[in-house]
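Subject: for your reference before the review

Hello V.,

The reviewers asked for a structural picture of the protein, and I figured it would be easier to keep everything in one thread rather than splitting it across files. Below is the amino acid sequence we used in the manuscript, unchanged from the supplementary table.
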Amino acid sequence: MNLSKSQFEQAYDQVILKNDFFERDSYYVQYKPRYWNTLKHICQHPLPESARILEIGGGQIALLCQKLFKYEGTVADVNEKYKQGILVQNLSFRCCDLLHDDLEERDYYDLVVMCEVIEHMPIPPYIVLEKIKSWIKPGGLLFLTTPNLYRFRNLVRLALGLRVFDTFRIPERGSGIGHPLEYSREHLKWHLEKAGFESIHIDLRQLDHAGSTLWTQLGRIMASPFLLRPLWRDKLVVVAQKPENSMPVEGQV
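And here is what came back from the structure prediction:
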């Protein structure tokens, strides 16, 4: 997949900045570099021309892939509050609470995208990942990003005795929580393998340098020299494959 910065900027303006999502509009202006860098990572892995993509949560990557590459996109989110911004762009929408629900598709998607979701799951990740794997075609890919347990922000908060994670609890159906847990590269790789994925590649990356407040933005600028050490970078960027020889799942649609 070829992607130019000008193409991205135009698509981002049309389907992200002029849309209605969970976060405030300023969030999507501020974190545009994250979406640019995420798409660049995805583009390193060729997909069929008529690829089927499922994005779990948000839908921004699915919207951009449909606009830029004409892929068939579906978005699954924990509730229907923001589905209209997906439907008006001619993507499919599914309400799916990963803690309680399943999708009917089996061996169907070429790519499942899950950005900043797994850290919100208050159960062992392999349970959710096994479910997601059943939706992917044999040989298809899972693309996942999640905060790095050893990111510099966490080290500072631990050193200062500040809270790092949210309360570990099971939320009500259709509701979300913060981060009950974050993962190291080794820990997440174990869960992916336990779920049956292979060809697992996990990078430590800094997808953006933004912050939600002026103080966090200044803090990130001051911390930038420390990010030369990969272990302290913000994100784990994961690409994993469902085995080619996976047996077809009954009930395929």
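For the response letter, the relevant points are probably these. Strands lie at 52-56, 72-77, 92-95, 109-115, 136-147, 198-205, 235-241. Residues 209 and 250 are 45 Å apart (CA to CA).

Happy to draft the paragraph if you're swamped.

O.
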